[in-house]
Structures are given as C-alpha cells and as structure tokens.
Amino acid sequence: MRTLLALLVVVQMSAGEVGVVLRPVVSVAAERATLGDVAELTGDEALIAVLRDLTVVELPDLRTRRLEPDEIRRAVGLGLGTTLRVSGVTEVSRRGQVIPEEQLIRAASAAISVAGDEVTITTLRSSGSVTLPAGGAEVAIVAEPLDQTQSGDIPFRVRILRGEVEVGRALVTLRVIRQRTMTVAARAIRKGERLSPGDLRSERVSVGRGSAAVVAQTDLVGREARTDLAEGTPLTTAVVVSPAAVRAGQQVVLVVNSERFYLTAAGESLNDGRIGEVISVRRAADGRTVRGTVIAEGQVRLDR
Question: Are 269 and 211 contained in the same domain?
C-alpha cells in the first residue's frame, strides 16, 4: 500500500487530473480492495501510479460492499476530490475459497488410529463443503473426535485454520468398524472355570465401542471366567480374571516383614482374595480379626 507521504510528493509534483470509472461488479482474492481493483483509471500517469494501489475498502469476510463516488473520494482523501473525476457505482466482494467436502472427510478419517487393526470407515453425515474468504496464509485442516471411543459412529469437529485463527468449521460423522485378531473361547466355559490351553483359539473379531483391554494368550492360561462364556467370546479383562490366591475358610500364613525382623503366624481367611487385594483374616492364636494384603498363594502380609 502506498504511503501518504509518497502521495503528497506526487500531488505536489503534478497538477493533472485522473478519471475514475467504477467497475459495476468486482471480486478480489485479498483482504482489501485497491482503487486499481475497483476502477478504470485514466489521465495523469504519475498520479495513477500512486492512486491505483490505495486501499478503498477492507474485506474481512465474504459480504458484498457497495461503493459510490463520494466513498472513493473519502478513501483517497488529501483534498484530491478536486483532481478526481469519479463516476459509476461498484459492488465489491472478496472471492471465496471452497474447501471440498471430500477434503474435510479425509481429514476426519486421518484422525482415526489404526493401531494394527483392520479398519473400515464409511461416512454417515457431513455438513458439506466450506466456503471461506480467499487470500492470506495457507489453511490447515484439523479434525478432532467428539467421542473418545475407537469404533462405532464417531462425530468429528473439523476446523479450518489460518495460523492460529479459525476461519471455518465443519461436522463429519464416520462409522468405524474395527477388527483385530484376538484370543477367544474355543468352547463354552462356565463361570469360575480356569482356562487351559485347549480352551483358547485365535480369531478375527469385531472390536466394539469401549472394548476392554486385551489379555495376551500366554497370560490367559490359569485365569478364571468371571461369568458363563459362549464359544467365540473374546477373552478380555471384562470376562476373565486372575484366580484367587486365597479362598474364604482357607488356612493361610500371616507374614510380618520389616527391616528388623520377619515373623509368621497361622490364620484363617475370611474372604476370597487375589494377589494385591486386601482381605480379612482370623488369627489362630487369639481369634482376633486383622486385615492384610494377599502376596502369594496362601500368604497374607499384615498391614500395619
């Protein structure tokens, strides 16, 4: 944009006139329109060289602005109204840049973690393409899931950014079907049964919303079914559990271990307990009930 000082110098050096004929309709790919954008200029070449680059209107959005001769004279200023012959009326707008719907969907799809799964993605809904003002810095498209699940119908907020400024937004909903190879029950298993190698097989299964953590096949042998399991049930932490290391009514060894001494005593467990769980134990010596943490098969560490 030409400076006011440069314009003053040209005005002082030239006494010519400039004819300004406004174009009826103008579209520009920039944040502002200059006199040269909106009008045909004739007359003094020295004046034209400065005037053509003067901003006559700011265009922060896609709205159309109507400019009449008086507004052109005010935009030029410096008393040059007497040297300008302005005619016509112009409607000026900023050109739109269309971000296609397909590009927005691709951004949402790219935000889905595959993580070794076989993933099928289909589009359920989209708010369509987005039109934003053209010009300025290149845009970046950022998709953010509005649902933290990894499968099913997942909505995405898709933001269009120029630098740190959001200039557009869309909503895309994708259906995500996720499959992976998992260990499943090779037969029907009753609640409380311990798993053996023959109870396990690998199978490609669909992973649902909020699926529980997968258990490695090598860690499944010896675990118990939390509930009755049908053949083909994926064996996750939701359906299998480590067996109890101590059973209610079982005779256990109570352990007191410190830096200075190590003591043991006999007791009777009042609860089932897995390693790491706290249970109640009745001491054999005095019948007193104490609390302790299961540390191994048949062993409970007294909590002090």
Answer: no
Instruction: Dump pLDDT digits (tens) for 47-103.
Output: 899 899 999 999 999 999 999 999 998 888 755 445 789 999 999 999 999 999 999
Task: Give the separation between CA 239 and CA 186, rounded to whole angstroms.
Answer: 14
Angle formed at CA 196 by CA 193 and CA 199, multiple of 5 degrees: 85
Please give the Cα distance from 124 to 154 (Å, whole number).
9
In angstroms, the CA 208 to CA 297 distance is 35
Give the integer Cα–Cα distance in Å for 193 and 24: 85
What is d(CA 153, CA 155) in angstroms, rounded to the nearest whole number? 7
**Residue indicated by tokens 């067996």:** 243
What would the two tokens of residue 75 be? 């935009």
Q: What secondary structure letter does DSSP report for 243?
A: P
Judge contact between 92 and 65, C-beta under 8 A: yes
Of 178, 201, 218, which marks where a domain is finished?
A: 178
Domain around 225: 181-241
Q: Are residues 38 and 17 in the same domain?
A: yes
Three-state SS sequence of 151-210: CEEEEEEEEEEECCEEEEEEEEEEEEEEEEEEEEECCCECCCCECCHHHEEEEEEEECCC
How far apart, in Å, are the Cα atoms of 26 and each of 58, 67, 75, 93, 96? Answer: 13, 11, 17, 6, 13
| Element spanning 124, H or E | strand 118-126
How far does Cα 297 stand from its chain's mean position?
46
pTM here?
0.60
